[in-house]
Design a protein that fits this description.
By secondary structure, the protein is mainly beta. The strands form 4 sheets. Strands 1, 2, 4, 5, 6, 7, 8 and 10 form an 8-stranded antiparallel sheet that branches. Strands 11, 12, 14, 15, 16, 17, 18 and 20 form an 8-stranded antiparallel sheet that branches.
Length: 335
């Protein structure tokens, strides 16, 4: 499995922020975490120099390096990072380094910069190529909340992508009690695989909040043969699903005709498509008609099949869904 199949924990879409930088003379630090791909505008200049869609520091004339501190949108375990130097050709850093720490709450920049804060090396000093997506797999087992990106000696980085698995604050969720969306990204949900996502990413299904448009949903290509489309969601933790919401907002001539849902219990490490297909799936929502541009709520229709760790969502035959919510109660012990 490619590490980019995991969630980008740092994206501004999930609340990621660049808290501080020692320098961002040519281009602001906030550009680093933009969800959109970096762009190039040939004739665009500012009073300071060429406009660049990224974070760019001035030319360093003394020893040292430039740095910025990033608060992840959601805390988690990192499996890989992309240091994207798109459009930076004669002004990219020679190398970079990433450090990480775990501090819950809202620590101040002063606290993060304090010598008492323990930073660990996530990515050792590594060479970069210009105008490239520099990909670095990460072997990390610990939950982190903040990153410090160092660039040597100076220059520009367009985007920083930090792919991994969300690790929520489970004690807080358990103290709150009640039902939660077991599939939500912020609660550790992850859409592992789908039959197709030609027009929209499968992980859009479980993003926070309502969708902002067709682009912000899961949409498959037009099916020209038999069969139907589907995706598999690993729930944030084991639980019993009591209510299902299927949102087709913005999909008007391209919504699925109907949908259904199955669940099962399996090890979290199961991620390969063939292994997922072989799991003991049980239907929890029978095939149900869908309407265009509508929020569908299923509660009385939900069958009681016990606790689950995974869900398989089917759409017939194809089309687009903006959000899928699977509300239920956490299992004891969160297996």
């Amino acid at each position: 499995m490619d590490f980019t199949d995991y969630i980008d924990l740092a994206t501004e879409r999930l609340g990621g922020r660049v808290l501080a930088a020692n320098d961002d003379f040519f281009a602001p630090k906030e550009n680093l975490l933009k969800a959109a791909a970096p762009v190039w505008i040939t004739d665009k200049y500012t009073d300071l120099g060429k406009w660049m869609d990224g974070w760019e520091t001035r030319r360093r004339r003394t020893p040292g390096y430039d740095w910025c501190i990033v608060k992840l949108g959601l805390p988690g375990v990192v499996h890989g990072v992309i240091v994207d130097t798109a459009h930076f050709k004669g002004n990219y850093p020679e190398s970079c380094e990433l450090e990480s720490c775990a501090l819950d709450g809202e620590p101040s920049v002063e606290q993060l910069e304090n010598p008492s804060t323990k930073w660990s090396t996530l990515l050792p000093k590594s060479s970069l190529a210009g105008d490239s997506q520099n990909r670095f797999p990460i072997s990390s087992s610990g939950r982190i909340t903040h990153l410090r990106l160092k660039i040597y000696p100076d220059g520009g980085v367009a985007r920083l992508r930090v792919h991994g698995e969300v690790i929520p604050d489970w004690p807080a969720l358990e103290r709150a009690g009640g039902e939660i969306d077991l599939a939500a990204i912020e609660n550790g949900g992850w859409v592992i695989v789908s039959s197709d996502m030609f027009f929209g990413s499968r992980n859009n299904l479980i993003q926070p909040g309502r969708s902002t448009g067709m682009h912000d949903g899961w949409e498959t290509r037009r099916r020209r043969g038999p069969g139907h489309d589907w995706c598999v969601i690993r729930l944030g933790a084991a639980g019993t699903i009591r209510r299902v919401e299927v949102d087709t907002s913005y999909f008007k001539g391209n919504f699925p005709d109907s949908c259904s849902l199955e669940v099962c219990s399996a090890a979290r490490e199961v991620t390969e498509p063939d292994a997922l297909a072989a799991l003991p799936w049980k239907e929890i929502l029978p095939n149900s008609k869908l309407k265009a541009d509508s929020l569908h709520i299923y509660e009385k229709e939900i069958l009681d099949v016990g606790e689950a760790t995974h869900a398989r969502f089917h759409i017939y035959p194809d089309g687009g869904v903006t959000r899928l919510r699977l509300f239920g109660r956490l299992a004891k012990g969160r297996a």
